[in-house]
Prior knowledge:
There is one protein chain. With 175 residues, this protein is α/β, with parallel strands linked by helices. It has one domain: Rossmann fold, CATH 3.40.50. It is 30% helix and 15% strand. The protein has 5 helices and 5 strands; from the N terminus they run βαβαβαβαβα. A 5-stranded parallel sheet has the order 3-2-1-4-5, with helices on both faces. Helix 2 (63-77) links the parallel strand 2 and strand 3. The protein is globular. The protein binds magnesium ion and zinc ion.
Amino acid sequence: MAGKALFLDRDGTLNVDTDFLHRIEDFIWLPGAPEAVRWANDHGYLVIVVTNQSGVARGYFPEEDVGRLHNWMNEDLKRFGAHIDAFYYCPHLPDGPLPAYAKVCDCRKPKPGLIEAACRDYDIDRNASLLIGDAPRDVECAERAGVRGVRYEGGSLLDLVVKELSGDGPRLAAG
Ligand SMILES: [Mg+2]
Ligand SMILES: [Zn+2]
């Protein structure tokens, strides 16, 4: 049976967007972000990060830094009883200075390649899935992949996830 996924942008959605973040010491979770991941874990969603990391193509940091930061995020999420199931990132930039990464790819958001890759690797029911991101290109990426996309505009990410994934939200038991 196909599973459902919560796709999350990284910078500006899960963590404070300091430009071209790549150092663990600069990482700050946004309000309710770890709790949002935990909620999705507990409600049967695969949690999949989809993130543009053109800092690689710009020569600001190597891909190893991306992997190291993502490993650290999952280590830190253990404090919250949460985990991210997979990270997909785009290291490319068409006009970047490094030939290895200077290409028009299919994965730089708003292109849908990151979500498409995740859907190939996991059995994902796109209709039951959601993407949350802070930029219009995140929502566009989701829509191009046939996934509902919602904009995160600050506040608690947990509140937004609960609102979007539990219909009308939690109900009090009828009494
Ligand atoms: Mg972002
Ligand atoms: Zn790419």
